[in-house]
Amino acid sequence: MRSDDRVSLPTDEQIRALHERFAPTADAFDLVYTHCQIIWAVAEQLLGEYPVPLDADLVRVGSLLHDIGVYRLYDAAGQLDHGKYVRHGILGHTMLRELGFPEVVSRFCSHHTGVGLTREDVLQQGLPLPARDYTADTGEEQLVMYADKFHSKTTPPTFLTANSYAASVRRFGDDKVDRFAAMIKRFGEPDLPSLSRRYQHPLV
To answer: Which domain holds residue 109?
Structure first.
C-alpha cells in the first residue's frame, strides 16, 4: 500500500510528540524513542534491497511507532514489566487504533515480534496473547520486523550482528533461524559499525 493512496501518515514531529505523551519517565522515552529511531536508521539502509519498491514513508512511520506499546508496561514507579513484555505489540496496536490510526500503521506494533509469531507459537509457548498469527505480511512490515532484530533495548542498549541474533533465536527452534536467514538473503545486512559509533551503543 502506498502512503499517498488512502492514508495520511504522521510526521516525525507528531510521532515524537506521541512518545513524549505516553512515556512515563524521561528514561523510558530515551530508551524507547531512541530504539525506534535506530530501527528506522537500519531499515532506511536496507530499503533498496527488497525485490519490489517499498513505501519508504510507511516504513519510517512503522519503525518510529512499532514499540510505542512498551510504555504501557511501565508501573507507577517507572519499572518495566519484563514478564509481560511480549504483550507490548498488541498493546501498541490497541493504542494506535484508539488514537485513530489506520490498521496499516497499527499492525507494525503487533506484527514485529521475533521473526513473526504464529498461532502455534502462541499456543506452544503459552504466551499471554490471543491465539492468532502475528506475522509480517507486507514488505514494509517484513523490513521493520527484520530491522528490529539488529538492536536491543538491554542495559546498556546494544546492536546485534546477524550471527548474534541467529544464536539467540535458535532456542525457539531451527525454523526461526531459517526464517531469519531468509530475511538476510532478502534484505542484506546493515552497516552496524557506523550506527554503533553514531549512537554510542556497543555492537555484540
So the answer is: 12-199
CATH of the domain at 91: 1.10.3210
Does residue 105 fall inside a structural domain?
A: yes
The rounded distance, in Å, linking the Cα atoms of 143 and 116 is 12
Q: How many domains does the chain have?
A: 1
User: Residue 174 contacts by C-beta under 8 Å, 6 or more apart in sequence?
Assistant: none
Question: Regarding predicted confidence, which is higher, 76 or 47?
Answer: 47
Question: For residues 172 and 151, what is the distance between their CA atoms, to the nearest angstrom?
Answer: 19
Instruction: Using the predicted structure, report yes or no on whether residue 68 has a pLDDT greater than 80.
Output: yes
| Residue 1 falls inside a structural domain | no
In a domain, 99, yes or no: yes
Instruction: Provide the β-strand partners of residue 203.
Output: 159
Could you give the count of Cα atoms lying within 13 Å of 193 in the half-sphere of its Cβ?
0
- Mean pLDDT computed over 139-159: 97
- % pLDDT > 70, the chain: 97
Residue 32: name the closest of 14, 45, 44, 16 by CA. Answer: 16
